[in-house]
Amino acid sequence: MRIAVFGVGGVGGYFGGRLAQAGEEVVFIARGAHLQALRTQGLRVESVLGDFVVQPVQATDDPRHVGVVDAVLVTVKAWQVPEVAEAMRPLIGPDTCAVPLQNGVEAPEQLAAVLGPTHVVGGVCGLVSFIVAPGHIRHAAAEPFVQLGELDNRPSARLDHLRQAFERAGVRIELAADIQCALWMKFLFITPWSGLGALTRAPIGVWRSLPETRRLSEQAVGEVLAVAHARGVAVPTDALQQTMALLDSVPPEATASMQRDVMTGRPSELEAQIGAVVRLGEAVGVATPLHAFIYASLLPLEQRARGQLQFPL
Hints:
By secondary structure, this protein is α/β, with parallel strands linked by helices. It has 12 helices and 10 strands.
């Protein structure tokens, strides 16, 4: 398959690298020092499942130089999705699917507003990975997985082809029977981790072990679950128990990507995760007081990271 990876961070670098290593025709859309490193040194991935290097690498900062592809893995940060959607147009042909793999539940709708709903599918992924240096990705924990689904949950040849490509790359892949359920189950998991991690600045093993913060995590999961129910998402009846068990399975030293961005003063996915719970809850009349508190508490740091506020730390 011909696959474009739009955003070569921890997610795009890992999955794009695995696909390229397996022989798929992968083109990376990157910029700056990262792009230069990809062009001159290739893509280096350190992984708990085995290190590898992809070289040479097809990489550009201009999608117009790529042309139409079979699939676009949209792996920028969630807050960047609306701004890159327009830039993706040259990659989209009649049968192209754009696959958002961000944290959050709003990216498919944001892409569909620009590209049209027939070109967008739902995507969920999981792994702990990040950029170490330009052209260098580290996969630090968790077995990577991907879930895909058409937005109307119908079977499709294009997703079956993409599933086969991920299988050839050795990536655990599943075509979800209900992609909205899959998106919200990931949202149930990542949002409390991100919010409590950013608020406490502690790794997951710390805040899930303290009775006080563990109770907060259960409350946070409950709030997201209430919003999902109100929106008609068919999450499992034991979704709370599943989510808490999944949080308990994460290596104790792990931190969430939003948490790392907040802690290092970078723009984060606060709006797409914590803010989204508050907004989506308000839209269906569901109160989310804990998320509202976390959002308000982190907002000054978020605005500082984006240059909207100035104050010393």
